[in-house]
Fold these 2 entries.
Entry 1:
Amino acid sequence: MADRTNILVGPAEVFVDGTSVGWTEGGVEVEKSVDTFEKEVDQHFDALDIVATKWTLTVRTAFAEATLENLKIAWNETSTIQAGPPKRLGIGLQQEIPEHQLEFVGPGPNGTNRRYRFWRAKLVGSSGHGYKKDDKVIFPVEFRVLPDENKTEDERYGEVLDEQP
């Protein structure tokens, strides 16, 4: 039977390496996709089977709090933020992309909280921001979740928990 408490509405709180990034803009999106290969033969009009050749898990959001800590994450910076005054983040070049643990918590079914945990995530793509008269500064981010080979096959990316608040 249908249950309206299973229709999930509301924002999620995002944590990177166990620290909340504060307010976000536009919610949090999670996408799991698969590339496939279709086994075809001349003697058959359709594929005999379809097998996975690559899985990809991506998490997207935008940090609405324009702190140096959030900018450090959004720009893949590895330098330490200096307390100052003035407070300072160096902007550098490095080949290694920092790895993060990623987590977000939002409303779950039947009054629970739904918690997504990803063991290994790296920021991919670009993140830019602008200062505008009629808009706020946000840092859009896209994380590519990578498998943790030390976990069992059914939880290599992470886990989803429905837990009591």
Entry 2:
Amino acid sequence: MKEGWKLTGSATEMTLTKGEVILTFDILIKTGQGTLYCAYFKRNAVDTAAVAAGKPMDTVAKSTLSKNSIAIRDAHCKYGHMSKAECRQTAKALGYRVLRGGALKACEACAVAKAQQKSVPKYSVSNKSTELNGRIFLDFSKIKAPKDLDITVTRSN
């Protein structure tokens, strides 16, 4: 794989290995088309710097990251769209200095995530069909004739 990573796996997990760094994807999520292999990452400044530099974990000091600064908007996008206070705490824990003066305005990704669908009315005020199977709505998942009628609903080709 790219940059020296080695991929191995089984039915229960997938593992990426590069030197001393091992990433295990052991959270399985079944989908309609297969399975997603996921992982939970808990990072700190030393681990992040070591992976970026390709060095063993214990040779990287936190002081190497303290010179970096980051805008609050960039931290918000980079660290998972969290609140302003949490962005500052996360950036500080990773050794970044958050620049003052930048307001955290609403971002498009957060707006999409918080969007709500309009509720669909259960009953329509429009005219009902007068003929059998004359008017069919698209939100039906299955067309079924009433049991008291002796008919079968079929699809025309």
